Amino acid sequence: MQLPLLSRSLLLVSFSAVTLAAQVQLGNTTLTGTIRFSSSLVVSIPYAEPPLGNLRFQPPILKPALDVPTFNATNFGPQCLQLPANVTSSGDCLTVNVHRPIDLIRGNQLLAVMVFIHGGGFYIGNSSQLDGNPLVLRSIARGTPVIYASLNYRLGPLGFPQGTEAEQKGALNLGLKDQLTALEWIKRNIATFGGNPAKVTVFGESAGAVSIGVLYLNSGLENLARGAILESGGAGTTFTFEASRRQENWDSFVAAVPDSSTLLQATGVSFAEAREQFPFVPALDGPGGLLPELPSEMYAKGQFARIPFISGTNLDEATPFTPTATSSSDTIRNGIISNYTTNSDDPALQAAADQLLQLYPDVPALGSPFNTGNETFGLSSQYKRSAAISSSHFSFQRFRRC
Questions:
Q1: How many structural domains compose the chain?
Q2: Residue 43: inside a domain, yes or no?
Q3: Residue 218 contacts residue 260 (beta carbons within 8 Å)
Q4: Phi and psi of 198, rounded to 5°?
Q5: Quick one: angle between helices 329-340 and 347-359, nearest 10?
Q6: Do 288 and 362 sit in the same domain of this protein?
Q7: How far apart are alpha carbons 256 and 245 in whole angstroms?
Q8: Does residue 238 sit within a domain?
Q9: In angstroms, rounded to a whole number, what is the distance separating the alpha carbons of residues 278 and 378?
Q10: Within 10 Å of residue 32's Cβ, how many Cβ atoms?
Q11: Is residue 1 part of a domain?
Q12: What is the pLDDT of residues 251-278, one digit of tens each?
């Protein structure tokens, strides 16, 4: 079988019953990747300089090409530093993965590209948590082959520092800047793999969708993608504040750094508890930043990318984040109110919380995980009720633009 486009960049070098090894020429570097299921070439490549040492709290530096003659790209790069302690992670983590069909290139026709940004509350997750191969195989089966790419970005306090010092030194929203740099790398290099840089769709779920929503506002996203899919998130999903508002959280983190065991003790902490202990999320970063104003204000002023998107909510999205100890209507009600204000006496907010509880009764068959009948998995029925409110209405439903 002839592959006209790949004849310039792809050479099969070994065969086995399980995998095929392949080489791709990226600039002056020969990349060695892996072919899965005889259908999809997978490579994992650095897209930025390692954010270590003096670069640790700095914006990413694009690495459009490698400075070595050969590079082993067969294994996914390490996850960015995160909890729990038994997760293998590294500060040198800014890599992009590319999955591409190997035998469906028609002449010099370039394929559309799907770029995935992972979720995880901005404190956990990695580029390989979603296997891109099924998506590629499905695209092949339906006769519309695509290339799938995914990326790592800095997480937690290394990706989203808080406090006055970080603001003054321009060190806010580094994880978002990592994402933009990865998209820039893809724009420059994806044609090498048979991808069309003018046909990039970026998609993500949870924190990945929130990231994309923020990038719609002031990042030049329209120059890097032609569309987006936001699953369970948007620019307003997380509560956005000035970085100085979370100064106490940053001080607590810095105080714990000399004793790393303090952080590692959080291994057994639940997702919901960890989210409170690690409030490292996108912050307002002032004029010239990615989030100079509240998302609602920027949308009202028309300051957003004019590219189409699809927005929705994944089923059961909030189940990992709902406290398993939830056991009463009052707990749910207080949680709703406290997410909006410290003034629990606000009559309008109290009425809204009561209305939500009426719309989502304490009936296990109606709760989340959905479609599981009266099963409560050993928890209070109020857990399923609370998860349903968060999944379907409270946490992840965002404004939509037609």
A1: 2
A2: yes
A3: no
A4: -90, 0
A5: 130
A6: no
A7: 19
A8: yes
A9: 28
A10: 16
A11: no
A12: 877 776 654 444 344 434 444 444 444 5
Residue recorded with tokens 């998860």: 387
Which structural domain, as residue segments, surrounds residue 63? 6-312
Is 240 within 8 Å of 295 (Cβ atoms)? yes
Of the candidate ranges 29-38, 142-151, 285-294, 298-307, the one whose mean pLDDT is the lowest? 29-38
Q: 59: which strand partners?
A: none
Torsion (CA) 7, 28, 153, 222 in degrees, nearest 10: -70
Does residue 390 carry a pLDDT above 70?
A: yes
Residues 258 and 387 in one domain: no
Q: Is 2 left (phi over 0), alpha (psi -120 to 50) or beta?
A: beta
Helix axes 381-389, 329-340, angle to 10 degrees: 30
Distance CA 30, CA 40 (A): 18
Q: What is the pLDDT of residues 68-115, one digit of tens each?
A: 999 999 989 899 988 776 678 899 999 999 998 876 555 568 999 999
CB 114 within 8 Å of CB 147: yes
Of the candidates 263, 292, 312, which is a domain's last residue? 312
- 198 lies in the same domain as 267: yes
Q: Does residue 137 fall inside a structural domain?
A: yes
User: pTM score, two decimals?
Assistant: 0.82
- Please choose, from the candidates 325, 311, 237, 318, the residue with its C-alpha nearest in 3D space to the C-alpha of residue 281: 237
Q: Provide the 3-class DSSP secondary structure of residue 233.
A: coil
Q: Tell me, yes or no, whether 255 and 350 share the same domain.
A: no
Q: How confident is the model at residue 341 (pLDDT cuts 50, 70, 90)?
A: low
Distance, CA of 23 to CA of 11 (rounded, Å) = 5
Q: The tokens of 258 are what?
A: 């000399």
Burial class (CB in 10 A: 0-12, 13-18, 19+), 256: middle
Both tokens assigned to 305:
């990318």
